[in-house]
Structures are given as structure tokens and as C-alpha cells.
Design brief:
Length: 246
């Protein structure tokens, strides 16, 4: 893909799973990759070394997306160190599940802070210095459009919020030639949603291609959107779910 070499990429939640796959893909394309993580310092350091092995600048930053101010400070520090961010990937997210009657207001605040408020906070912070041709790509979920059970209500609610945000921000930033898009994965084999979990066979039974995707599947689409080839795509929601929502 063209146009990614030396770009400054900031990814939230890049120590594991989909975020790590996206980080690897951008490093392989020659971009500078800065990623955040919340808790897994050892894995984050390993991931940072893995990215540097591609011969690019890379940095892991421990910052909890639940702390919007700290996230914005991390973006400001990154800009000071590496220059303006060209590509923001809002990836970090949590997916708690359980009975509706057991959900507390604290649970509500936690998921909205991480899955929604952090996306706004990070996007708001990068736009200040983002140049023409910039990209904002958020990772939503196919569960924004369907409910396969009643156990992930807040998760679906949080990911639906990203659809409205993406459309509005795409229009706001169009004049600056910055694109804004939403990628909605279906079941992807990660710690969040292992392909051998008890629920996995049920999810496979709902799919046109009855198999889990990989982080690399998502990374390929994200890299395409960020590349020169993706420059005319904005305000779009792209579902990549093995046909689960078909
Ligand atoms: P994982 O749980 O496997 O990995 C999550 C990553 O995000 C880790 O790097 C983790 O860091 C980081 N993270 C989690 N919470 C925070 C936080 N509060 N602050 C900063 N970083 C945080 O998740 P996935 O890779 O599966 O999911 C990534 C995104 O894709 C999420 O937004 C998820 O909702 C979405 N998604 C995933 C699907 C799936 O089937 N896997 C399907 C649809 C959407 P640390 O290692 O420190 O914990």
C-alpha cells in the first residue's frame, strides 16, 4: 500500500489483539507506531521491540483510556516527540457482558468512558495538529447493528455511538481533507473473544463464513483506509464480520 512510510500512527490499545495486529501492519509498511495500553506492561514492551525490529520508531505508552485527560496528554507528548499524528486508530475497548438487571451506573460510566469518551477525546486532541490527508479510524463492532443476545447491551450501545460520531466528524473535517471512518469487526480471535470460548460455536453458526477472523484481517482494512488508496472513503462504516450481519 502506498503513502504509509514515515507516517506517525497513534493506536489506542496496541499491546494485544486487534490493536497489536494493526500496529504490526503499520510498522511493516514503514510507519512510526505509538500505541497505548492499560495494564500489560510486559506484553507492551515485547510488542514495542517487535515493532522496532521492522526498523521503525515505536513506543508503548501506559495510559488508561478511561482517563480522557491523560490520553490527551499522551497525544500531546507524542506530537512533541514524533511530530503531528497522521493516523489515529481508536481501538482500545472493553466488552463486559452479563444480565441487564445486574448492570450498575458505575459499569455504564466505565464502558462509555473507554469505548466512547476516549474516542472523542483522542480525536479532539489529534485534530489540533493533524495535517491534510490525515486519517481517523475507529474500531466499532458488528454488534452495533445486531443483538445476538441480551448480554452485551452497553457494549452495543457504546459501539453504536461511534457511528454517529464518525459521520459528523467526517463532515466537519472534510474541508481539511481528513477522512474519518468506522471499522466494525465481527468475531475476531483475541483474548476478548477467543475462538474456543463457550459462545464461539453459536457465533460461528450465525456467520456466512463460519469461522473467526484474525487481527490481520482487520489490520488489512485499516491499512487500506489509511493509505493513499483509501483517500476517497470517509464517513463510512465498514463491517468486516464473515457475513454475520448479512
Ligand atoms: P483485547 O481485549 O484482546 O485487547 C484490548 C487491547 O486494548 C489491549 O491492548 C488492552 O491493553 C487495550 N485496552 C483495554 N482497555 C484499555 C484501557 N482502558 N486503556 C487503554 N488500553 C486498553 O481486545 P480486541 O483486540 O479483541 O479488541 C480491540 C477492539 O476491537 C475493541 O474496541 C473491541 O471492542 C473491538 N472488537 C473486537 C472484536 C473481537 O471479536 N475480538 C469484535 C468486534 C470489535 P492491556 O493489554 O494493557 O490490557
Amino acid at each position: 500500500m502506498t503513502g504509509l512510510t514515515n507516517k506517525v500512527v497513534f493506536i489506542t490499545g496496541g499491546s494485544r489483539g486487534i490493536g497489536a495486529a494493526i500496529a504490526n501492519r503499520f510498522a511493516a509498511e514503514g510507519a512510526k507506531v505509538i500505541f497505548t495500553y492499560a495494564k500489560s506492561t510486559h506484553r507492551a514492551k515485547e510488542q514495542e521491540e517487535k515493532l522496532k525490529a521492522f526498523g521503525v520508531n515505536a513506543k508503548a505508552i501506559q495510559v488508561d483510556s478511561a482517563d480522557a485527560v491523560a490520553l490527551q496528554t499522551a497525544i500531546s507528548d507524542t506530537t512533541d516527540q514524533f511530530g503531528p499524528i497522521d493516523i489515529l486508530v481508536n481501538n482500545a475497548g472493553i466488552c463486559p457482558s452479563g444480565d441487564f438487571s445486574d448492570i450498575t451506573l458505575t459499569d455504564f460510566d466505565e464502558i462509555m468512558d473507554i469505548n466512547v469518551k476516549a474516542v472523542f477525546a483522542a480525536s479532539h486532541a489529534v485534530v489540533k495538529n493533524m495535517a491534510e490527508g490525515g486519517r481517523i479510524i475507529s474500531i466499532g463492532s458488528n454488534l452495533a447493528d445486531i443483538a445476538v443476545s441480551g448480554d452485551t447491551i452497553l457494549y452495543s450501545m457504546s459501539k453504536s455511538a461511534l457511528q454517529g460520531f464518525t459521520k459528523g466528524l467526517a463532515r466537519a473535517l472534510g474541508p481539511k481533507k481528513i477522512t474519518v471512518n468506522l471499522v466494525q469487526p465481527g468475531p475476531i480471535d483475541t483474548d476478548m473473544n477467543p475462538a474456543d470460548a463457550p459462545l464461539a460455536d453459536f457465533l460461528r453458526s450465525r456467520m456466512a463464513l463460519p469461522e473467526y477472523g484474525t487481527g490481520d484481517d482487520i489490520a488489512g482494512l485499516v491499512a487500506f483506509l489509511a493509505s493513499d488508496e483509501g483517500k476517497y472513503i470517509t464517513g463510512s462504516t465498514l463491517t468486516i464480520d464473515g457475513g454475520m450481519n448479512a
